[in-house]
Amino acid sequence: MRKYSAVFFDFDGVLCTDRFYSNIKTDFPLAMRFINEAIFDGVNDYANRWMRGEFSYYEINKLISEATSVPFTRLTELFIASVRQMRISPTLIQFALSLKQKGIKIALVTDNMDIFNEITIPEKRLADVFPVIINSFDHKRLKLDDNGKLFDIALDKLGLDSYQEIWLIDNSPSTCTVFSAKGGHSYQYVGLREFETWVKTTSFE
Questions:
Q1: What pLDDT, on a 0 to 100 scale, did the predictor assign at position 3?
Q2: What is the CB neighbour count within 10 angstroms for residue 123?
Q3: Average pLDDT per block of 10 residues along the chain, 205 residues long
Q4: 177 vs 20: CA distance, rounded Å
Q5: Which neighbouring-strand residues pair with 7?
Q6: Residue 82 burial (CB count, 10 A)
Q7: What is the domain partition of the chain in residue ranges?
Q8: Beta-carbon neighbour count of residue 172 at 10 Å?
Q9: For residue 10, which of 157, 177, 139, 188 has the smallest C-alpha distance?
Q10: Residue 168 pairs with which residues in a beta bridge?
Q11: Which pLDDT does position 42 carry in this prediction?
Q12: CA distance 177 to 184
């Protein structure tokens, strides 16, 4: 029976599927449209640059406020509230904890923003679950940058020197490809039902 030394978890799309600014759709529909089109899908690549630490959420909300006339203070209040309302999958958390109980090391490796450090990690108590948390914002690079350098950082922090006995759980096919190319095993997360089937057929002893 093959044993695995560590499992890396993604956050967005795996541990959590909720979205920023989800609470402004009703009162500020035009602002929501601007956020989707200009921040997360626009040619200026604001979302990725934000996750690379080029912008703070203060600067992003200033940009949105000036473009949409939504008062900056109100926009920021709603943004922070939307982050606090984000739900974490209890199934994934319990799986992570079960791995720790078996002596398997775990890490959370995420392309994320400054707000993740400020609110999500402490309020969702993620550090109580994951002894290693790697946020792209802190390292000025995304998971696909520099041949997956963020994973090398996580590997080093866990005190490991090989990917051969490590799983990555991530919803991005391109990220899974990069991780597999480094010698690791990747599972592309598509939903809870499929994940539970995969866990039952994969040995984590």
A1: 73
A2: 11
A3: 84 97 93 96 95 98 96 97 97 96 96 98 98 98 98 97 95 98 97 94 79
A4: 27
A5: 106, 167
A6: 17
A7: 6-17+88-201, 29-84
A8: 20
A9: 188
A10: 8, 186
A11: 87
A12: 10
- What's the one-letter identity of residue 108? L
Neighbours of 61 (CB within 10 A): 24
Q: What are phi and psi of 118, to 5 degrees?
A: -75, -40
- Measured CA to CA, the distance from residue 18 to residue 9 in angstroms comes to 16
Q: Reply yes or no on domain 6-17+88-201 having CATH 3.40.50.1000.
A: yes
- Residue 205 pLDDT: 67
Residue 164 is which amino acid? Q
Extract the tokens encoding 34: 């601007």
In three state form, how does the secondary structure of the chain look?
A: CCCCCEEEECCECCCECCCCCCCCCCCCHHHHHHHHHHHHCCCCCHHHHHHCCCCCHHHHHHHHHHHHCCCHHHHHHHHHHHHHCCCCCHHHHHHHHHHHHCCCEEEEEECCCHHHHHHHHHHCCHHHHCCEEEEHHHHCCCCCHHHCHHHHHHHHHCCCCCCCCEEEEECCHHHHHHHHHCCCEEEECCCHHHHHHHHHHCCCC
Is the distance from CB of 112 to CB of 137 less than 8 angstroms?
yes
